[in-house]
């Protein structure tokens, strides 16, 4: 039985199965699953990334989705102020609601899909993992969607997917490193955006960095801290920043949250414009971290998985040149300790 037939059989038996889960049940990547529908409910698009994201600006209001293994970030709004020069390693979309940091070297394949009246554009990495998805809604511009798909339609419309080749940076060696020296380097960063450069310079992973600064600039929290944090932010209507990403895209919510609901292993924000779905059982470490800035220390809560990869980052709402909010610091001080 061909893959598309297996997919249709599975969905006929379990219509509410999500594509990511269906792919795992069938032992394939999600990109391969979507590709199997090319010529039916999917269209392969050319990897013209700048043209693609500029096209997103024409779609009107949509829902942007970025996820990793343990968290899903969904934000309704418009793509605005897209900055993605041709060939650039980094770009972004800087709208009031859809706020993204983009890393196109991690991207490989993109499809437009249409099933049961639902339209989307889905972007995948070299291993077939979803990087970013754009889902159209009732008020989205269908004409603009069709024009974008037609303009980017790939001549290759075969229903197959082949993994890409990607050169990954060398893994940090996490070798011998003096904690006091690294703490001094951490405090001298000058800006939280310099973190990745600091980690590269010292060839240290984020998890190892937090271990080195533990007790000075980082303190462990209970792994289920997301519930108390989100509930406290909702009750006080403290505006926060929620970062969820993967190697190809980071998506950011800036604002308040209101409806917090735990369902099984999932901790959820279920607001009209913003949804967060977080698998608390996949959180291996939780940290309260401070980083230096020109305006003083900036504090975050950082959740890592068992591999040491970031699941989600929480900050108080802030902009450069403005002091960190006192209500965010008060909220952090009230969080349960490990």
Please provide a written account of the structure.
The structure is a single chain. It contains 10 helices and 18 strands. It has helices at residues 3-13, 19-26, 30-35, 49-56, 142-152, 179-187, 195-202, 206-212, 226-236, 326-333; strands at residues 42-45, 62-67, 71-77, 82-83, 91-94, 99-102, 107-115, 118-125, 130-136, 218-221, 240-246, 249-255, 260-263, 266-270, 274-279, 285-293, 296-304, 310-316. The protein has 2 domains: 3-84 and 107-152, Heme iron utilization protein-like fold (3-Layer(aba) Sandwich), CATH 3.40.1570; 179-333, HemS/ChuS/ChuX like domains (Heme iron utilization protein-like fold), CATH 3.40.1570.10. By secondary structure, the chain is α+β, with helices and mostly antiparallel strands.
Question: Any chance you could write out the topology, listing elements then pairs?
Answer:
Blueprint: H1 3-13, H2 19-26, H3 30-35, E1 42-45, H4 49-56, E2 62-67, E3 71-77, E4 82-83, E5 91-94, E6 99-102, E7 107-115, E8 118-125, E9 130-136, H5 142-152, H6 179-187, H7 195-202, H8 206-212, E10 218-221, H9 226-236, E11 240-246, E12 249-255, E13 260-263, E14 266-270, E15 274-279, E16 285-293, E17 296-304, E18 310-316, H10 326-333
């Amino acid at each position: 039985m061909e893959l598309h037939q297996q997919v249709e059989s599975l969905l006929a038996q379990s219509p509410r199965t999500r594509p990511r889960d269906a792919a795992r049940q069938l032992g394939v990547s999600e990109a391969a699953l979507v590709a199997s529908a090319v010529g039916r409910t999917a269209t392969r698009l050319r990897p013209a990334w700048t043209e693609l994201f500029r096209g997103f600006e024409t779609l009107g209001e949509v829902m942007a989705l970025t996820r990793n293994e343990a968290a899903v970030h969904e934000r309704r709004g418009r793509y605005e102020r897209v900055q993605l020069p041709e060939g650039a390693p980094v770009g972004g979309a800087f709208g009031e609601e859809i706020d993204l940091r983009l890393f196109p070297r991690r991207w490989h394949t993109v499809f437009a899909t249409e099933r049961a009246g639902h339209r989307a554009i889905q972007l995948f990495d070299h291993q077939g993992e979803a990087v970013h998805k754009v889902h159209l809604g009732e008020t989205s511009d269908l004409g603009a969607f069709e024009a974008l798909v037609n303009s980017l339609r790939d001549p290759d419309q075969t229903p197959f997917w082949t993994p890409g080749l990607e050169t990954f940076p060398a893994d940090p060696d996490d070798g011998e490193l003096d904690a006091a020296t690294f703490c001094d380097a951490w405090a001298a960063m000058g800006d939280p955006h310099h973190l990745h450069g600091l980690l590269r310079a010292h060839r240290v992973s984020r998890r190892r960095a937090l271990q080195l600064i533990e007790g000075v600039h980082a303190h462990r929290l209970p792994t289920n801290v997301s519930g108390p944090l989100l509930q406290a932010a909702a009750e006080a209507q403290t505006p926060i920043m929620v970062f969820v990403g993967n190697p190809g895209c980071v998506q950011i919510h800036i604002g308040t949250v209101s409806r917090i609901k735990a369902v099984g292993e999932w901790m959820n924000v279920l607001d009209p414009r913003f949804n967060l779905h977080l698998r608390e059982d996949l959180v291996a470490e939780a940290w309260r971290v401070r980083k230096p800035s020109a305006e003083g220390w900036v504090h975050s809560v950082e959740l890592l998985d068992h591999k040491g990869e970031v699941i989600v980052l929480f900050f108080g709402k802030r902009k450069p040149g403005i002091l960190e909010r006192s209500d965010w610091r008060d909220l952090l001080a009230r969080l349960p300790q490990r």
